[in-house]
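Protein modeling request. Please complete all fields; requests missing the sequence field cannot be processed.
Requester role: graduate student
Desired output: 3D structure, token encoding
Chains: 1
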Amino acid sequence: MSATTEHTFRRSSIRVALAAAAVVAMAYLVIATSVFAIVTNNLTAQIDARLAESARHILRGPDPGPGRFVPPVGEKPLGAPLLVWTVGGDGAVEANTRGAELPAGITRSDTPRTVTVLGEQVRIVGAPVGGRYVIVGQSLESVAQAQSTLVLAELVIAPVLLALVFFGAVAIGRRVAGPVEAARRRHRSRPAPEFPYPTSCP
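Delivered output (202 residues):
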């Protein structure tokens, strides 16, 4: 294979490898984004389920009278702590954790939602209890940690995957170039067929 031909094949294989890496990168981005969304939704759904169950336990438990409600007994000791707010009929809010104040204007949360408490994202849900309203919350710190770990893993995997695709495509292109060039040379060195010319015209 001549130097010019080898250079041409090298450039072609690099172009093909870059195209393959671009396609893989787009596919990887779509998959990574989908995995991130699925993991986030699943973890948030687990927190919502825990909050709903805790709210039901509080509703079925004893009424503390004029005092504030507290997390239900039997909660996982190593689980994330629960925040409980008791909203009185006059709108006054009492929390089971000092300084954990609900954002202004939030005294109900019939469906799960995310708010900011003490500078952290907190998932809350509530239910009425007699003339009062109880809101249960849990920090989303565990979700944020899982998101950070997932993003870090995806960022580490991405360049390794793209490098493997690129260099693999280049290697395959160069390996295929040899037989292709050999076949082309054989074809060019083959003598052209000779056809007899008519000696006379009708």
